[in-house]
Request: fold
Amino acid sequence: MHSADLFARAQAVIPGGVHSPVRAFRNVGAEPFYVQSAHGSHLRTFDGVDLIDWVGSWGPMILGHAHPSVANSIRATLESGTSFGACSLPEVELSEEICRRNPWVEKVRLVSSGTEATMSALRLARGFTGRSAFIKFRGCYHGHADSFLVAAGSGALTHGHPSSPGVTADTAKDTLVAEFNDLDSVRAAFQSRPGDISCIFVEPIPGNMGLILPEPGFLEGLRLLCDEHGALLVLDEVMTGFRVGPSGAAGRLNIRPDLATYGKIIGGGLPLAAFGGRRDIMDRLSPLGPVYQAGTLSGNPLACAAGLALLRELTPEVYLRLETLGARLEQAIQAGIQGKPLQFQRIGSMATLFFHNGPVRTFADVDACDKEAFSRFFRLLLEKGHFLPPAQFEAFFVSTSHTEQEIDRLATDAIACAVAALS
Ligand code: HOZ
Reply:
């Protein structure tokens, strides 16, 4: 059985053959491979190919695949059952751990996906403030709930549908779009709906239009504008939470959100996400308050056990190691791309190589990238045994399971493939 056979079978019963669009590799002009197994930093495909994985399941695999602590924890918990639809110990322990590591999370609720987390946080922000509209940023991605599929990033942008059919005009009118790193555009959005903005929703370090860094003062400015207008600041840390530091981007950049959303790492590779924040806001949730939110698999014991085991492994030494590996990669790549229309951006263990001449700081910069060159780059790098996200508008991830040799190999191969893709 080969990947091509599986993809043919899949296309007969699954739209586009995939359960999430970016996996189809369509915009990079390739066919997807099927993963047979994954250990540490490596994937093995059904075609017998060994790949170094820089996607890491889009973020959760911060320690690499099948980490023994996570696997053992899942195994041990499995013996007691897989889902109860009733309260259990792992959900309490994971919730405590999330609150302990993020002091602004006074209370947290667990859900099953990042989309659910952001959708629920937005409803809560609206319910708490009694306001309808909210501000998001062009190119930021917060999952695929209707309100967020307006000028969205990630797969929506990659596949050319940043605003999706099926989202009604009535829904979209309450989503105000501002420009990342441009406080004036945020002020204008506030002015357009005086007294009706419930919250600003933002990836503090966007990873869903490639990795963009907030400029000094931008996030602080958002905090001030929220306070000035009585709106909530919601940081979407699904990608950055527990990734760029033990308390995510909020901790690393010293920005205090009212609410925050988490996913990916906190489930240890199983479907789990969360939203949390100020006690007075969170207590508006049912059953304490009137804002409704629920889920049959919320707080699933297996997912909580996996997440808890992973979080307990994330010591200061782990973050130091990730920082060291990320810096090593950056140094090598920067040296090799000097003078070329390429831009490497990184924070900690997240990074993107943009096909762009000069810094990428706004959506306009992102939009100007050479996507054709990126497609060639992706295919060339895959041939050399590296799996990078199959899209320019994504970040890739270094894990503690990557070795120095693999980092150096990626740098060498990425430079060579990028130069080849340009010509
Ligand atoms: N949300 C993930 C990071 N942008 C992508 C996952 C997917 O689209 O399948």
User: Anything to note?
Assistant: The chain has two domains: 3-63+316-422, 68-313. The two ends are 36 Å apart (CA to CA).
